[in-house]
């Protein structure tokens, strides 16, 4: 089964649609981002767009490294305390993966690790999640999986089921221009690797083959 977000907005300045998309999800947003995104002005821009549509927001900027269960717990507690309606993730894969976990746990009790390996299936619909990536590579904004590190044993836990899929993905290539050259190169190789892996996978699908080949061709075109 091939899953994708219910809606994908792609293109230059698509980020500016965040206010209108947020208004469709609720009256109070919970933004999960990091200090880098705040410093670049992306968080402020997001807040402004929400305010223009009369959508209130609460901001969590605690994501600093690879996503951990500590970030998830802190963000979830703030989400619940502030009675937010939905989640917006703004940043790299760490912010998006953290937001995926919060969206699911907000309506399904337990520890995020309970969902590892399909051990627990979300019985309640997660709160809406709008994912806004600022780097290439992970593609987390368009997958139904999240990887969270258990800080007690330093083990990365992978959770995969439809509940973790964002409702909306806003992919604005202009947001990637602020990344350092080294990060741009590294995430480009990461994206190429994902495309190759998807194409040669035994679980490949005609649609994923089409996307994988397109991604590889685009990457080669950029290098040339």
Automatic annotation (TrEMBL):
<feature type="domain" description="Fe-containing alcohol dehydrogenase-like C-terminal">
    <location>
        <begin position="184"/>
        <end position="218"/>
    </location>
</feature>
<dbReference type="InterPro" id="IPR018211">
    <property type="entry name" value="ADH_Fe_CS"/>
</dbReference>
<comment type="similarity">
    <text>Belongs to the iron-containing alcohol dehydrogenase family.</text>
</comment>
<keyword id="KW-0520">NAD</keyword>
<dbReference type="InterPro" id="IPR039697">
    <property type="entry name" value="Alcohol_dehydrogenase_Fe"/>
</dbReference>
<keyword id="KW-0560">Oxidoreductase</keyword>
<dbReference type="Pfam" id="PF00465">
    <property type="entry name" value="Fe-ADH"/>
</dbReference>
<feature type="domain" description="Alcohol dehydrogenase iron-type/glycerol dehydrogenase GldA">
    <location>
        <begin position="5"/>
        <end position="173"/>
    </location>
</feature>
<dbReference type="InterPro" id="IPR056798">
    <property type="entry name" value="ADH_Fe_C"/>
</dbReference>
<dbReference type="Pfam" id="PF25137">
    <property type="entry name" value="ADH_Fe_C"/>
</dbReference>
<dbReference type="InterPro" id="IPR001670">
    <property type="entry name" value="ADH_Fe/GldA"/>
</dbReference>
<protein>
    <submittedName>
        <fullName>Iron-containing alcohol dehydrogenase</fullName>
    </submittedName>
</protein>
